[in-house]
Amino acid sequence: MRLQDKKVIALVDKDFEDLEHWYPVYRLREEGAQVDLVGPKANETYYGKYGVPAVTDYAFSDIHAEDYDAILIPGGWAPDSLRRFPEVLQMVQHMDEAKKPIGHICHAGWVLVSADVLKGKTVTSTPGIKDDMINAGATWVDEPAIADGHIISSRRPPDLPDYLRLFIDTLAK
């Protein structure tokens, strides 16, 4: 298992995109990583856009980003809420400064926009937030998934296999 001894934060909030949350969580666990679900409250059930529940292990305030090796941000409508939490922005900024993998898919790019970590980076996302990404200083490309150093981005659920291959390869290094 390539990711044994790796710890990953998987952010969650209401209306996350079900596949964009669960597919990465399960793939990373299959590779041996410890993946903690982290949301506004600990031991709280949050429902995805299609009704799939996720029960958080920890609240944002319960964890320290420096104890983790990577962070995953799902798409859906959750990123619009997640980016309003200072603790989430601090986690993303810590991961960026430490050059630890930051995975984001679809609308999750909004969190990186608000964390102000995209200047000079090449990323992708759902086309709906292309302008936001560009206005935050990124170069936007229409690719299934792309890694620019430690920042791994993807467009939508059909691109999940490409996204997770890049994310797992980056985290395994």
From TrEMBL:
Entry keyword annotation includes Cytoplasm: no
Sorted UniProt keywords: Glutamine amidotransferase
Pfam family for this entry, one: DJ-1_PfpI
Protein name: Type 1 glutamine amidotransferase
Family: Belongs to the peptidase C56 family.
CDD domains: GATase1_PfpI_like
InterPro entries in the cross-refs: C56_PfpI-like (IPR006286), Class_I_gatase-like (IPR029062), DJ-1/PfpI (IPR002818)
Residue span(s) of domain DJ-1/PfpI: 6-168
Matches recorded under SUPFAM superfamilies: Class I glutamine amidotransferase-like
